[in-house]
Amino acid sequence: MTDSNFVNPHGLPAEGQYSTARDIAIAAFEAYQNPDIREMVSKKSYVFVFNDGRTYTLPNTNRVLYEMEGCNGMKTGFTYAAGNCLVCSASVDGKDRISVVLKSARPQVQEESKALLNWALGLEFTGPLAP
Prior knowledge:
With 131 residues, the chain is of the alpha+beta class. It is built from four helices and five strands; from the N terminus they run ααββαβββα. The mean pLDDT is 93.
């Protein structure tokens, strides 16, 4: 990741903070290598249990998880500076792919992510990509 500068841990806008889709894809790829993270980001919902025993179901805001066969994550986001963003992953027939859409709108961010993933799933890779 050579074209990013993070000044806080949460990614919300800050003076001097920036990144690129390529760098976000690199970070997503590294996270995707961890089976625990892959399991977490693939959940369509999570049941939060309060201390008093009450529960609340939190739905995943990644609509592509619900709409595209093989989609298995990853992360939605929104700020006024970055617009709607979606880092999305899919695994089909042994092919794992990641897409990054930044500065989009709703619902286009989901449609753009599905289009990128479908395109990428059609590609054949014969070895590691050059840096």
